[in-house]
Specification:
The protein has seven helices and 22 strands. With 446 residues, the chain is α/β, with parallel strands linked by helices.
Amino acid sequence: MRQRSIFTAIAAAALLVLTTGRMALSDSLGATTPSSISAVAAATAGCGKTPTLRSGSQTITTSGKNRTWILRIPDNYDNNHPYRLIFAYHWLNGTAQIVDTGGSDGAVWSYYGLKQLSNNSTIFIAPQGINNGWGNTNGEDLTFTDDVLKRVEGDLCVDTTQRFAMGWSYGGAMSFAVACARPTVFRAVAVYSGAQLSGCNGGTQPVAYMGIHGTHDSVLNISQGRSLRDRFVTNNGCTPMTPREPAQGSLTHIITAYSGCRAGYPVVWAAFDGDHTPSPNDGSTSTSGARTWTSGEVWKFFTQFQSGPSTSPSPSPSQSPSPSSSPSSSPSPSPSPSGGSGACRVSATVNAWNNGLTENLTITNTGASTINGWSLTFALPGGQTITNGWNATYSPTSGQVTATNVSYNGTLAPGASTEIGFQATHTGNAAKPTAFTLNGSPCVIA
């Protein structure tokens, strides 16, 4: 990604914004309420249609300009299934192509690592900024986002309660602008090393918010990231606090989930001992999309939200130092499992690379009674060690592992399913577990 080589350019852009007063763009970005995009849970116009869009580079005319963007549609796309959708904005002097391909880190870092973790469950969009940035002059980048979203939703089946935005540096600034101006359109945002460089039109309504920032960021000081975070601490009704942050030289990260937030609108702050990067590695000053903890944590943050008109509960408050992206940082589990420990089915899909893998598990209650709280037990093949997990807590991280539900997915009605997953290292054996038990009962493997 050549992250270090663009630090100076980003700093210069930030200084230009500050000195010219363009940091306060709210007067020129248009109305806070989007023109015709609704966040009410409903099938988009593209549901049931044979799509004309295909994965790859796209063009669109917006604000009188021809703009480009890259679209990735899941393999085996089902036009009757509403999909999660994620916008991923590039950094200053980055490109949509690098976001799409993962740059020098390859597929494991495509869309900041989330494409691989999604396992064909998500539509991804990488917009291209003007002059490789997100100045958002007169709100043109927000309009660009609106117009791309309308184009996609008119052709593809999207879950309107599952729209997300993310980005690093200038891309983080653009994600923050989206949170401010489109709070009823986007369910949550993840801002990596951001600052208010792309404006904040509105910025008074709640949006689920995750901020990630290095404690000694030499390009956009962490104080700028804290300022963005604190706006949504207020908007989301969270209890103000000063989260702990790792000491310089510790080469660790600390993740804090704020308490008291309005239900369904959590705020999470992840501070790491490092500089200006979206892919820090615990225990090292180097960066790597294949080894970073950020992708798993952002994926976990986005996937906690359930489809439908009702919002999910906030994650339980937590504040724990992490030498790695520990599964223990997952939201707190529900009370002990009770009832409904009958028939079950589990399907497992593994995506592996040279020394790592991700595994996605779908658990289905095939019994006749509701499951209230569940624990899924399985044996990891030798040499595999879990480094990060989502939508469940995992203990221990190798050998015989038990995945336990978290607060928002513990109830499974007959016929209902839930998706969980984890990232792991391996020493050559990337196989799936060969057996699963749910609350002590063996499951059929799909």
